[in-house]
Design goal:
The protein has 6 helices and 4 strands, in the order αααβββαβαα. With 147 residues, the protein is an alpha+beta fold. The protein has 2 domains: 31 residues; 92 residues, Endonuclease, Chain A, CATH 3.40.960. A 4-stranded mixed sheet has the order 1-2-3-4, sandwiched between helices. The longest helix is centred in the first third of the chain and has 22 residues. It is globular and about 55 Å long.
Length: 147
């Protein structure tokens, strides 16, 4: 969660004509607060996905309800640049396509989308698709020690 922006910082930004910076910060904070409330009120399908992603498939760590480029992603792994979305019945496919394109063009983030029906009826297939998509993690190398 973002901390409060100190009033002296707000005043200084307004003095130099940078009100937009304050407004962007306030919008970001509102999104972060909303994402936090979504984490507390996950749907059953999101909880199922969270339980699976909590096992760290292929060693990748996914965080729930993360704000990226002004969008709240259901699950996001920054290292693998992968977002996973659990789509309910009310999703707008055109808006989702624009959002996915924006995330890809701005940050190189690939989005995997699964409907609630897929998660409920064939979760083994969903899990297998996620595992197939994720790259194998790079082996960690240790720095040489001593002389």
């Amino acid at each position: 969660m973002l901390k409060e922006l100190p009033q002296e910082t707000v005043n200084r930004l307004f003095e130099v004509g940078r009100q937009d910076a304050v407004w962007r910060w306030q919008a970001r904070r509102a999104k972060e607060d909303f994402a936090e409330s979504l984490r507390a009120a996950m749907t059953p399908h999101e909880r199922t996905m969270a339980e699976f992603l909590g096992t760290r498939p292929k060693g990748w760590r996914f965080k729930p309800q993360v704000v990226v480029c002004g969008y709240i992603l259901d699950f996001y792994c920054a290292t693998a640049k992968t977002a996973i979305e659990c789509d309910g019945a009310r999703h707008d496919e055109d808006a989702d396509a624009r959002r996915d394109g924006h995330l890809w063009s701005r940050k190189g983030i690939q989005t995997l989308r699964f409907t609630n029906d897929e998660i409920e009826d064939a979760f083994d297939d969903v899990a297998a698709r996620i595992i197939r998509y994720l790259p194998d993690p790079k082996p960690r190398t240790r720095k040489p020690t001593g002389s």
